[in-house]
Amino acid sequence: MTSWSRFTEEAPSVATVFTRRHRAAGNLCLLATLRADGSPRISPVEPMIFDGALLIVGMPHTRKFDDLARDHRFCLHTATVDTQVGDGDAKLFGTVTDVTDKRVHDQFTHKLFEERGLDFREEEFDHFFVADLTGASSVEVADGHMDVTVWKPGEGERVVRKH
């Protein structure tokens, strides 16, 4: 399993671009999942880093979480608003595990309350997905070229420069 912590160690460039874009967009990303019929679904989501893990949690009873419960594969894309990609762009690929441990949920909701003032401490999660990253990429444009950085677990980062 490639946790967020391990990913940031193995792919510091991609992790930096993802984190920068994630914060700049108010934590908003686009989540790609597969519907029951196999067609793709794109949904907004606000992934969070907690205890060295990337979490994909949110409102209960949403179709995107039904998709992930059925087919654990996903792609998470930073919200791109600049067509020139001046601040970069990143995608994460992987699968999720639905963590049902109420102690973990409680720790998360207490931290969320402390850090953001959002009070979900008495709420039940339909799903509490922890990401296992299987690949990632980022794009950065500078000085008349585009660098595409690609990462796979255990292989480190590889940069492809396009002019």
The CATH homologous superfamily: Electron Transport, Fmn-binding Protein, Chain A
Helical amount: 25-40%
Order of helices and strands: HHEEEEHEEHEEE
**Strand percentage:** 35-45%
Q: How many angstroms does the end-to-end distance come to?
A: 35 Å
Under the CATH scheme, the architecture is: Roll
CATH class: Mainly Beta
Number of domains: 1
Mean pLDDT: 93
Low-confidence spans = none
Can you tell me about this structure?
- Strands 1, 2, 3, 4, 5, 6, 7, 8 and 9 form a nine-stranded antiparallel beta sheet that branches.
- Strand 7 and strand 8 form a beta hairpin.
- This protein has a single domain (4-162), classed as Electron Transport, Fmn-binding Protein, Chain A (Pnp Oxidase, Chain A, Roll).
- The model has no long low-confidence stretch (mean pLDDT 93).
- It has four helices and nine strands, in the order H-H-E-E-E-E-H-E-E-H-E-E-E.
- Helices cover 26% and strands 39% of the residues.
- It is α+β, with helices and mostly antiparallel strands.
- The protein is globular, with a radius of gyration of 16 Å.
- Residues 27-109 form the Pyridoxamine 5'-phosphate oxidase N-terminal domain.
- Keywords: Oxidoreductase.
